[in-house]
Specification:
Blueprint: H1 3-13, E1 17-19, H2 28-35, E2 41-43, E3 53-56, H3 62-69, H4 76-85, E4 92-93, E5 101-103, E6 124-125, E7 129-134, E8 138-143, E9 146-148, E10 153-156, H5 163-170, E11 175-181, H6 185-192, H7 201-208, E12 213-215, E13 222-224, E14 229-242, E15 245-246, E16 252-253, E17 256-268, E18 273-275, H8 282-289, H9 293-301, E19 305-311, E20 320-326, H10 332-343, E21 349-353, H11 362-372, H12 375-378, E22 379-386, E23 403-410, H13 437-445
Parallel strand pairs: 1-2, 3-18, 4-12, 20-21, 21-23
Antiparallel strand pairs: 2-3, 5-17, 6-9, 7-8, 7-11, 9-10, 10-17, 11-14, 12-13, 14-17, 15-16, 19-20, 22-23
């Protein structure tokens, strides 16, 4: 299901909002999209960019991914885990939709790249999946925010010691790069995952759904053929100031000296759709967090009977998780907490709950904490642990891994015997009757 097919499906579901009036990509379009965060929004009339459309919010809800993958929202984790375990080689085709229109070198100012907030350093590409070839491990796909500098250049934020950064540091000259924008949802998910070195993320995408690739015009890189736009270029060793820009935690990231990308070709589909991901909002959070859930699940499965995992939007979809287990031992909650940190090292707080708790409902999770937790018994503190650079409260020393204190909450029903609680009925909600109340209201209105 490519982006256009998904938009048709979202329209049929009644999810898609369409904006026909002229909208300025400088601050105005992002403001409208922020107001509608949580649903896909298609902008049909972008000021200064005839022939282009802009979409936001396609990845802003789990139900969107469920629709694209043909599964229930609660089963996405299991599809991702299966694809990670069994990647498949995508086919390579020649007649690719993403190369219907070719500009060499093209002008980046022709694309409706948004300036999101007044304090941003400039217009930013936010949904671009960058593909490079590491000289040792092969093709790699990842996300990088790209600050447009002029018609042919970006400043690229490369996170230190990650895939693109490592490949760039290994390369004496310029490193070829291709940036794909407007991808199918399953390809967006795959690009967010962290497979072992040597496994191309698009092989995981192929395991999720058909993902044909095509060869770039200016290099031997392979890109998703169904992309709306592909920017081909080179990461140079020239540095420039990048930022400030909003980060996943909805706080402003700092200004750094970052590499300059020079663009050599722009290709796109007829009537292209530019994907503008809102930084710090639901699309950003879900694409960051959901792909980490299988790793937590696998780690907890080694020590407990885990049933599901949810990295929560309230925790910036990076720092907080809820883990659901079937409890078989008094220490299962603590073991699950410790394993969750092994599964995703950036986790700061984790809550473990029983099977009767809906991990996707924050009220249900809070109810479990309120009724099943005693702090002195069920809250575990881990001091001075490796953590995430995205946490502004962590301890950050340049050139070193960020560090933070962490806490885990065992919100499972406490066991006071080796085989379970003496009075488990005290910890379960009393079921209330469920009636068709509309029938009662209709009767009154009919009088």
């Amino acid at each position: 299901m490519d982006l256009r097919t998904f938009l048709d499906a979202a329209r049929a579901q009644g999810w898609l909002a369409t904006v026909d009036r002229p909208v300025d990509p400088n601050l105005e379009l992002a403001a409208v999209a922020y107001a509608l965060d949580g649903r896909p929004v298609l902008f049909e009339n972008v000021i200064g960019h005839p022939g282009w459309r802009v979409v936001s919010g396609v990845a802003a809800a789990r139900k969107h991914f469920a629709l694209a993958l043909g599964v229930e929202p609660g089963d996405i984790l299991f599809r991702l885990a299966e694809a990670m375990a069994r990647p498949q080689s995508p086919p390579v085709i020649e007649d690719a939709p993403c190369q219907e229109v070719i500009h060499r070198p093209g002008d980046l100012r022709d694309l409706p790249i948004l300036k999101h907030l007044p304090d941003d350093a400039g217009p930013y590409v936010t949904a671009g999946v960058a593909i490079v070839r590491d000289p040792d491990t092969g093709l790699n796909a990842s996300y990088h925010r790209l600050q447009r500098l002029d018609g042919r250049h970006f400043a690229a934020r490369l996170v230190e010691n990650r895939g693109t950064y490592t490949a760039w540091r290994k390369t004496a000259g310029d490193l070829p790069i291709a940036i794909a924008i407007g991808l199918p949802l399953h390809a967006l998910l795959a690009a967010s995952m962290s497979p072992p070195a040597g496994v191309f993320e698009m092989a995981i995408a192929q395991a999720l759904a058909p993902t044909p690739l095509t060869r770039c015009l200016t290099s031997d890189l392979l890109v998703p053929a169904q992309a709306e736009v592909v920017l081909e270029g080179r990461i140079t060793h020239r540095l420039t100031a990048e930022g400030p820009f909003i980060d996943l935690t909805e706080t402003s990231d700092i200004v750094r000296q970052q590499p300059v990308i020079e663009i050599d070709a722009i290709t796109h589909r007829h009537n292209p759709i530019y994907h503008a991901l809102l930084p710090g909002q639901l699309e950003h959070k879900l694409l960051m967090g959901m792909p980490k859930e299988p790793g937590i699940f696998a780690a907890v499965r080694e020590v407990a009977d885990v049933r599901n995992v949810h990295i929560t939007p309230g925790g910036a979809s990076w720092l907080h998780a809820v883990v659901q287990i079937a409890k078989h031992h008094p220490d299962d909650g603590r073991r699950a907490i410790e394993a969750a940190y092994r599964g995703h090292g950036s986790l700061k707080h984790v809550v473990v709950v029983d099977e009767d708790i809906d991990i996707f409902d924050p009220n249900d999770v809070e109810w479990a904490i309120a009724t099943r937790v005693q702090a002195g018994r069920d809250v575990f503190i881990f001091r001075d642990q490796p953590s995430s650079s995205l946490d502004p409260s962590a301890r950050h020393i340049p050139g070193q891994k960020s560090r933070s204190d962490k806490a885990g909450v065992d919100a499972t029903i406490p066991w006071d015997t080796p085989t379970g609680p003496t009075h488990p009925e005290h910890f379960h909600r009393i079921p209330f009757p469920r009636l068709d109340v509309e029938a009662y209201l209709r009767e009154r209105n009919d009088r």
